Amino acid sequence: MTTPAIPEGVKRCPTRQFTLWLAVVGAVLLWGVYAMFLIWYKGLNQTGMNDAYGFALWIWADLAVIALGGGAFFTGFLTYIIGKKELKSIINYAVIIGFICYSSALLILALDIGQPLRGWFIFWHANVHSMLTEVAFCLSCYFAVLTIEFIPLVLENPKLDRIPFLHHLSHNLHEVMAVFAATGVFLSFFHQGSLGGVAGVLYGRPFAFREGLLIWPWTFFLFTWSAAAVGPCFTMLITWLTEKITQKKLVRPEAFQLLAKISGWMLLTYMIAKIADTWYWAAVTAPSKGFSLMDFYSNNPVYGIWILIAELVICGIVPALILITRKGRENKKLLVTAAILAVLGVCINRWVMVLQVMAAPLLPFHDWYMYMPTWQEVATTILPVAYGAILISLAHRYLPVFPHEKELNPGQ
Amino acid sequence: MTQQPQHTKTKRYGMVIDLDKCTGCGACMVACYAENNVPFRQDESDKMRSLNWIRVMKVDNGKPFPDTQVCYIPMPCMQCDGQHMEGHSPCVSVCPAVATDYDQTTGIVSQIYTRCFGCRYCMAACPYHARKFNWWDPKWPADMEKYLNPDVSARMRGVVEKCSFCYHRYQKARDKAYVEGREELHEDEYQTACAQACPTNAIAFGDLHNPEHAVYSLSRSKTAFRLLERLNTNPKVYYLSSKSWVRRKADNYLEGENPEQIREKARKAAATH
Ligand code: SF4
Ligand code: SF4
C-alpha cells in the first residue's frame, strides 16, 4: 500500500489547484532564470549599474533578505536557548523562511560578481581585514546550519519517515538542535554585523561612515540588532499570509503574541540606538568631513529628508509602540500593520546604506548619481520571491511544518 | 610634517599637478590609454561606463560671464596612503580577496586583475571614482592590436582596474638599475606616461621622500593641496593652484569654515602618525 505524501490528519487543496499555482509562480521563476542566464552569459553589462554605482539593487536585496531571514536565528535562540516553549509552534516555519532568505542571498551574490567562476577566491585568498570576507564565511557556515536545521523537517514527510534510517536520523537531529541553534546565533551575530560593517567602514564615504568600537563601526551592532528585531516580524507576516491563503489557523496565538512582544521591545531599543547613532553622525561625524545633514537630503530628485522620517518614525517608532502594547498586539489588524511597517523600515535602512551611499556626491564638483535597474536586475530580484513561494508551498503541503495545525483546525 | 622625511630606501611615489598650467587638452588621457592598453568602445558617449585611468574634470567658479573662470583637474588614482599613512587605503582595506594591495616599498596601490573577482567593494570605497569596472571584454580594431603595449596585460570582462602609476615602467627601470649595479633610480628613469605626455609640464612625478625629486618641494609648497583631504585618505597626488576658489573646490566645507586653516590642521594630524 502506498502511503500518501501529505502529513496525516491535515487537509490540503486538490492536486490540480496546487499544480496550477505552481505553474503560475513557476512562470515568474523562469523569467528570473532567463535573466540570470543572460547575466552569467553576457556579464554585468546587462544591469543598470555603472562605475559610480558599483553597489546597487542586488546588494540591497541581499542585505534586506538577510535582515528579514534573521527571524530564523532569533526565534531559534528564543526557542532552544532561552527555552520559550510557546515558539515551538512557529520555529519550523521560521527556519524554512530563513533557509529561503539565505539561499536567495547566496544566489544573488553569485550573480552580483563580475567573475562568477572566481567566487571561491573570497575563501582562498581571504583578506581577514575585509568585512566582506567575514560576511562570506559566516554566511556560508550559517546557511549550512540552516540546512541542518531544515533536514529533520524534510525527513518527517510521511513517505520518508517510513524509512527507518531516515526516521532515526531525523529523531537524533532533533535531539541536538540546540547545539545548531547556538552555533546559528553565534554566526548570525557576526554576519549580520559584518553586513552592517560593509558600509560603516567606508571612511571615504561620509554618508555611510560610522565611528565605533574597536574594528567595528556602530552599524555592525545596529544591523545585528535590527535583524533580530525585524526578522521575527517577517516570520509573523509570512505566517499570517499563509494562514490567509490556506484559510486555516496554523500557529497558536500565544506564539504570535510572544514573538510580537519580544520584537516590539527589540525594535524600540534598536530605534533608541539608531536615533542616537544618527544624531551623533549628523552632529559630529559628517561635519568633521565638511558635510551638513541636509547635504545628504537635498538637491536630488529622490533622496529627501522624508526617507529619514519614514525609516525612523513611521517604520520604526510607530510599529515598536504598537508591538509593545498589549492592545496593539491583540488587535490582529494593528499587529499586521506594525509587522509590515517594521519590515519596510529595515528595507529602507538597507536601501539607504547601499543606494543612497552611492548616490551622494563627494566632491563639490560632482553631482548626485542616479541609477535605474534594468529588467534583468528586477527579474533576478523577483526570482527569489517566486522560489520562496514554491518552496513554502511544497513545505506546507508535504511536511508537518506546523505542529499544532491539527489541533487548531479540528473540523478538517 | 613635524619630521622631515629622509631619503630612504622606502619610496613614496607621488604626483604633483599644477592646475594653473593644465589647459585641459587631454594628452595625459590619450597617453594613458596607449601606454596601459586601456580599451575603449565604439560609442563612448556613456561616460559612466567609460574606462579611463586618468580623467580630466572641468570646474568653474560659478560666476557669469565675463567673470567666469575655468579650471581643469586631471584625476588619476590618488594612490591613497590611508588614514594613518600605513597603507590602509579605502580600497585596499575592503578588498575581500587581496586583489588590490598597498606596496610598502613604493606606496603604490596595486591591482591584480587575475585575482579580482569583480565584487566592486573597492569601487564603493573609493571616494575619487578612480576605479573602473570592465563591463565588456576588451576589443581593439584589428590593426590596433599591433600597437598594444607588451608590458601591460589586457584586462578581461568583470574585473576592476585603475591607474598603477605605470608600475611596469618602475619594474623596468629597477631591473635596468639592478643590472647596472645601482640601487637608486634617477628621477627621469621612472616617469609615468601622463607626466611625459603633458605639453605644459603640468604633471610632475617622483619620490615624495626624495629631496632631489621635483615633487618633494612642489608637494610642500604653499599652494599645494589634495582632493578630499578631510576624509583622511591621504592621497599621494597633490595639486597646485594659486586660485582660492579652486582650492575650495577640492573639498567640502561648512559655511564659515576657512579651507586653508582646516587643511593645515588635517596635514598636521596626518604628520603626527
Ligand atoms: S584613489 Fe581610490 S583607488 Fe586610488 S588608492 Fe585611493 S581609494 Fe584606492
Ligand atoms: S572588485 Fe576586485 S579588487 Fe575590488 S574589492 Fe572586489 S575583488 Fe577586490
Overview of this protein structure:
The complex is a heterodimer of chains A (412) and B (273). Chain A contains 16 helices and two strands. Chain A is globular. The longest helix of chain A is centred in the middle third of the chain and has 36 residues, at 253-288. Chain A has a single domain (15-408), classed as Formate dehydrogenase/DMSO reductase domain (Formate dehydrogenase/DMSO reductase fold, Up-down Bundle). A two-stranded antiparallel sheet of chain A has the order 1-2. Helices cover 71% and strands 1% of the residues of chain A. In chain A, helix 3 runs antiparallel to helix 9 (177-200) and helix 6 runs antiparallel to helix 9. In chain A, a hairpin with a 2-residue loop joins strand 1 (212-213) and strand 2 (216-217). Chain A has helices at 15-42, 57-68, 70-81, 88-112, 121-124, 131-155, 158-161, 164-175, 177-200, 218-246, 253-288, 306-324, 326-330, 332-359, 375-398, 405-408, and strands at 212-213, 216-217. With 412 residues, chain A is mainly alpha-helical. Chain B has a single domain (13-271), classed as Alpha-Beta Plaits (2-Layer Sandwich), CATH 3.30.70. Chain B has eight helices and ten strands. Chain B has helices at 27-35, 90-94, 121-125, 167-179, 193-197, 214-218, 244-248, 259-271, and strands at residues 13-18, 55-60, 70-75, 100-102, 109-111, 132-133, 160-161, 203-207, 224-225, 237-240. The interface between A and B is large, with 50 and 57 residues. One iron/sulfur cluster binds next to helix 3 of chain B.
